[in-house]
């Protein structure tokens, strides 16, 4: 981490803020929430904005960022912006056009980080989840190492400063790391990670290869039907987390976020409530003890909230699970 303790250095020399603002929301509110909450997040101090083509709100996030640049709150170089390559654009010739589309929507000349969203290719086209006449997902036979080569070219072209992956397991990471002619290593691997799924083995592997782990669903998950198992317990109601939070006079959410930062994990915090967004930035105002960290480590259940409840997708994506 840098001296301020609020950034981590990538293996390519760039830095990423350890706390990011997550922008996913259910489709029916994604655009409205992006316009309402992204400017507020920047106002209270967030400088790392995590976006994706599949969230379908990059245009609104771009408007929010431009508004905060226009009013003098930030300069472009103050903002760390991530976008993600969706699975329908994994063919090498589709990678740069997909990034250029995100840049146009975001009204940016470059993103700070561009990552492959899943280690799985889907049939190209306008449909986010292309299906056949039986309603089953249609996959595409693309070697993601070829997709990676196209990402490397985007970095060389200055369209993105850094490139990484998301939802990769260690074997899939090794496939890229061992690829003949590799020019750039992935700088990060963004995965579901929280006290019920602490990803210890994957974190150790990533650290050994100088790859930063980025945690999404760090507070459990938004309980979105069809993507998340609604039967799982609510993380922030865990009595152990609540007891540690009470000891520090903080909320369980802040404890869960602080836990990741002290492990060297970059953590994303979604906010669809201004009070929560304002609260999350306070993660730098306290520290967990070694005993707290050990206790939270003991909560691990290897339990995923984000199961992506499409049977054929789940079946195909299990090799890409990040545990």
Mean pLDDT: 91
Number of strands: 10
Shape: globular
Strands ordered across the widest β-sheet: 3-4-5-6-7-8-9-10
N-to-C terminal Cα separation, in Å?
25 Å
Q: Can you tell me the residue ranges where pLDDT is under 50 for at least 5 consecutive residues?
A: 309-323
| H/I helix tally | 11
What about the largest sheet? Answer: 8 strands, parallel, barrel
CATH architecture term: Alpha-Beta Barrel
Calculate Rg over CA atoms.
Answer: 19 Å
Description:
With 323 residues, this protein is α/β, with parallel strands linked by helices. The chain has a single domain, classed as Alpha-Beta Barrel (TIM Barrel). It is 36% helix and 15% strand. The chain has helices at 30-44, 58-70, 92-106, 144-156, 170-177, 200-208, 239-248, 252-262, 274-280, 290-297, 311-317; strands at 7-9, 15-17, 19-22, 48-50, 80-85, 111-116, 160-166, 188-192, 212-216, 266-270. Strands 3-4-5-6-7-8-9-10 form an eight-stranded parallel beta barrel, surrounded by four helices. A two-stranded antiparallel sheet has the order 1-2. Helix 1 runs parallel beside helix 2, helix 3 crosses helix 4 (144-156) and helix 7 (239-248) packs across helix 8. The two termini are 25 Å apart.
């Amino acid at each position: 981490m840098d001296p301020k303790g609020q950034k981590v250095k990538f293996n390519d020399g760039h830095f990423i803020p350890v706390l990011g603002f997550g922008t996913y929301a259910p489709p029916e509110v994604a655009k409205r929430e992006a316009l309402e909450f992204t400017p507020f997040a920047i106002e209270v101090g967030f400088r790392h904005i995590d976006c994706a083509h599949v969230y379908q709100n990059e245009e609104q996030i771009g408007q929010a960022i431009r508004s905060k640049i226009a009013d003098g709150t930030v300069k472009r170089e103050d903002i760390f912006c991530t976008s993600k390559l969706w699975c329908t654009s994994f063919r090498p010739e589709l990678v740069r056009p997909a990034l250029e589309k995100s840049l146009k929507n975001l009204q940016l000349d470059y993103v700070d980080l561009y990552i492959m969203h899943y280690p799985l290719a889907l049939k190209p086209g306008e449909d986010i989840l292309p299906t056949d006449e039986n309603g089953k997902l249609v996959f595409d036979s693309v070697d993601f190492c070829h997709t990676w080569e196209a990402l490397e070219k985007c970095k060389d072209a200055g369209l993105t400063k850094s490139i990484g992956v998301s939802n990769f397991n260690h074997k899939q990471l090794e496939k890229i790391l061992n690829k003949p002619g590799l020019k750039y290593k992935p700088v990060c691997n963004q995965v579901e990670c929280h006290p019920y799924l602490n990803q210890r083995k994957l974190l150790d592997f990533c650290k050994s290869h100088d790859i930063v782990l980025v945690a999404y669903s760090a507070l459990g998950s938004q309980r979105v039907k069809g993507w998340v198992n609604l039967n799982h317990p609510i993380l922030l109601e865990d009595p152990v987390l609540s007891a540690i939070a009470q000891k520090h006079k903080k909320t369980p959410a802040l404890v869960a976020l602080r836990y990741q930062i002290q492990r060297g994990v970059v953590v994303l915090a979604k906010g669809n409530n201004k009070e929560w967004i304002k609260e999350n930035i306070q993660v730098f105002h306290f520290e967990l003890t070694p005993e707290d960290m050990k206790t939270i480590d003991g909560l691990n259940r290897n339990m995923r909230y984000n199961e992506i409840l499409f049977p054929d997708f789940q079946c195909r994506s299990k090799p890409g699970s990040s545990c």
